[in-house]
Write a sequence for this structure.
């Protein structure tokens, strides 16, 4: 009998509350303020999908041979009409991937495309609930769920986010 060793695809890990707080604080200080100033309103800090949506997407990805998911950072158009409150704000897009061996033994995670009639379309999911503008329970609060960060903006003063 020939034994075939399966290569692990695992790359992530569970992290602590302190780690989450730190990376969110870093993001707020190093990117969020500038993004918000550039678009003229608070940019999104988080997004939410239901477990049902994520499970459905993963099931479909597996059906097409997927073994991973990429999360692409994106931004809605400035005149996004489908949900005007999302216009200009950043978002996440889930894209199904299949790991392949690249040149020189490197690993690449290729986006999956699905044939739909006369065209191939990427297997992707978006329309995440963004915070802001939809924060808190049932989207009725403008206060994000993440911790408070105090940012020193130099001559522009302090900012609490």
């Amino acid at each position: 009998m020939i034994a075939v060793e399966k290569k692990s695809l695992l790359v992530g890990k569970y992290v602590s509350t302190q780690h989450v707080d730190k990376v969110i604080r870093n993001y707020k200080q190093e990117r969020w303020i500038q993004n918000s100033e550039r678009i003229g309103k608070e940019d999104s800090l988080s997004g939410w999908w239901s477990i049902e949506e994520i499970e459905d997407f993963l099931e479909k990805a597996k059906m097409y041979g997927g073994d991973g998911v990429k999360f692409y950072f994106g931004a809605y158009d400035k005149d996004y009409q489908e949900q005007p409150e999302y216009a200009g704000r950043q978002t996440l897009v889930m894209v199904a991937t299949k790991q392949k061996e690249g040149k020189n033994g490197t690993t690449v995670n290729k986006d999956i495309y699905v044939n739909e009639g006369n065209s191939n379309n990427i297997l992707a999911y978006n329309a995440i609930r963004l915070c802001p503008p939809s924060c808190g329970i049932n989207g009725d609060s403008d206060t994000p769920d993440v911790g408070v960060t105090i940012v020193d903006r130099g001559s522009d003063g302090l900012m609490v986010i």
Observations:
- The mean pLDDT is 86.
- DSSP finds two helices and ten strands in the chain.
- The chain has one domain: 17-160.
- The two ends are 61 Å apart (CA to CA).
